[in-house]
Records
---
Amino acid sequence: MGSALVKGLSKADDYTLTACDLDPDALDSVAEYCSTTTSDPDVAAESDIVIVALKPDIVQHVVGDLDLSADQTLVTLAAGVSTDTLEPHTDATVVRVMPNLAAETGNMAAAVTQHSVNDDVREILDAVGEFVEVDEQQMDIATAVNGSGPAFVFYLLNAMKQAGVEGGLEDDEAKTLAAQTFKGAAETVLQSDQSIDDLIDAVCSPKGTTIEGMDVLWDSDADEAVVDAVSAAERRSKELATESENE
């Protein structure tokens, strides 16, 4: 996730980016997008905004080792780790963000804690996609919807691609058609004033091809499976929160 943000922000031309990691391969993978790469956390900690993209079980320890001042902002991407958990370990303003991998292409969906977000963080998020400000109690479900959501979409997209291949399309043809269809449908939802149900109806002409396919979906448990997947991801985010509080 950290590398996706670095790559996305590098296209904005408004930021001086410093990447810090102990893994030289990780640094090499983002070197062309950064002004500086380093394995020294003190160098990275000189930035006005410090983003920590770490596993939940180590984020407290790393944040505690960073010497940040009250004039700085600490943005955490760690799933399940609350601002309350990190605030005792730093003097910086703590902002919790759950982005997703589409930050790399400028198409990110992110949730951010409304009580602590500031304009500098808003500008960063706006540079790489869309974001919503939510009560921190809603961050677990946001983590499931937009953080884990890309994997669920990839799964569904791959199913459509496979259907195209089984119907006779070449693999790359089916991939392009399926991916562009998801992309176009998502953009339509974002730009339209119509509800999603109304948009479905708009595609379903009577006795046409789409209504035949939708009848299969309506008669299936496909929607329940997606809800269950999101619920499972939300439940795990809450478990991570409990684990981090007990560290």
---
Amino acid sequence: MRPVPPLPTADLPVVVIAGRPNVGKSTLFNRLVGRRQALVADTPGVTRDRKEGVALIRGRYVRLIDTAGLEEAAPDSLFGRMRASSESALHEADLILFCIDARSGITPADEHFAQWIRRQNRPVLLLANKAEGRQGTASALEAYALGLGEPVALSAEHGEGVTDLMWEIAERLPPEHASEDSAENAPDTDGDEEDTRPAGPLRVAIVGRPNAGKSTLLNTLLGEERMITGPEPGLTRDSIAVTLRDEDGEFEIVDTAGLRKKARIDETLEKMSVSASIEALKMAEVAVLVLDATLGVHEQDLQIARLIEREGRACVLALNKWDAVEDRTATRKAILDRLSISLAQMRGVPVVTFSALTGSAVHKLLPAVREAAEVWNARVPTGELNRWFESMLERHQPPLVNGKRLKLRYITQVKSRPPTFVIFGTRAEQLPEDYKRYLVNGLRDTFDLPGVPIRLQTRGTKNPYAES
């Protein structure tokens, strides 16, 4: 696995991969960051939003940005918006990797954008990708005609020439600033990774159905047009992570592709997008479930909520387009009633209402996310927990199973993230589900654990006189 960078990504030099569609930019991005982070397919134009990662280049970390393909298009069209996003990334680059397809040769689009890049007054390294074998290397020489210097011939897919490319990148990076003691800056990896809040930003995944306003929400939080948005559903294909800081700390927020019903997912590319969304949810600490408040709760919204619960993540319900709702009281009640009936584990989930398009009340979201993360990380002292447990047993005795009453002895919390409890007792493993729900509801109400999954496990004690 790629090592953790010793410095915040904002302090790292920026290297941007640019070029027309389908020249292998995302494949090269994955190769340099050391893992399959960007979606790759034979279909041109898979990448729509900028994707960032951290790459270790000859002992030095860089912030690597994969961009959408550069294409001539009207500014208000989808491809025009994609190009504007790519150009915005190029303006902050310390080094541009301009990539062409050596097998296809130099195209008019390559020539046009090479001229445009020359005018940006940024360091540029010309890459001739897909230059496998002798023929590919010979074809790469045609790239001299672009006037961007000597091309680096490589094959990102097969790894050929990547070592030479890393040397070339390292030589062109800006001088490295002296940093303070790296041991102080390095993250602490001691302790139980599963049960301790890790160092670094709070990881958040924005999930929901297509066209619910997830990308618009992220743009509003960032205060810039970072994600491609528009009326077309399904614009976001890959899971895009960005870092955001407020007065209380950092967030790593991932915008994911919209999740549709399985029956409607038939294209390979869309299946890859869904897989990336689910993977982002698994890596998150808090999931922000975005709903279109004008449409209410759809069955697919409930399926996504069940997925969040199954993965054990904290959840914040984000009701977008709230400014377009006429009867807000009735709408909120209908949504929460539907969730409470269909998803008992989501009872008490925090709800934030806003308009991502206008920015109204969006500022309430991040504090709600942080509060949900605190509940998700909650720990209940063992003594307090068992005093509660005794009172619950007195109020409603454990049921009879096969004519014998279960003897539940004590309870302990074994982990947080999400809160997980284990009950010990004679034949505790036979505890009925309805009694478990009674205890879970009591845990949630007594110890203020709203809106997070609560795991309740049982451990029976062996009877030494039972037949083996």
---
Amino acid sequence: MSISTALAAKIVWLLGIVAWYVIRYPFERRAKRVRVVTDRRSLLDRVGLVSAVLGMAVLPAIYVFTGFPDTADYPARWWAVVLGAAIVVAGLWTFRRSHKELGRNWSITLEIRDEHRLISSGPYALVRHPMYTSFFLIALGQLFLLPNWFAGPIGLVGFAVLFFVRVAKEERMMLETFGPQYTTYMGRTKRLIPYIY
């Protein structure tokens, strides 16, 4: 029995989401044990997080499991599945490396933790926000994996809302916390894409 291209794409997308959760879970558990000293969570921050979850998990999952909205489908291509899978794998690798480098500093929201330090190694040597880079890559992979004019690109929309709602606030918080050290770091790194942006 041969597997259809569209089904293979959906399976790859689903495996990517499961892998994302498996990577994040232990860091989320550990983070709860480290005291928060500065908390900049806001309603707008929550809007960004909800947008990302809707665009990169909930709405595509509805499509994967129900086919809705099938009127927006287009033919799945093997080359797109392979390309999408490779992009998602790159995103997951970046996601894991970002968590590993941050260690006890990691937080799902805008927080500074006890004994927080500026991380500038690993993927942080190239970009200031590699966690967002990983989300961008996973959302881009979704675009290639889900052959649907709604479910494919909605991940990029969710990512964009999260990124543009939070990144400036996050950088202000880091400047307040680390001062000239962060200013120097900003001068030698890009925000999201190495050497470009």
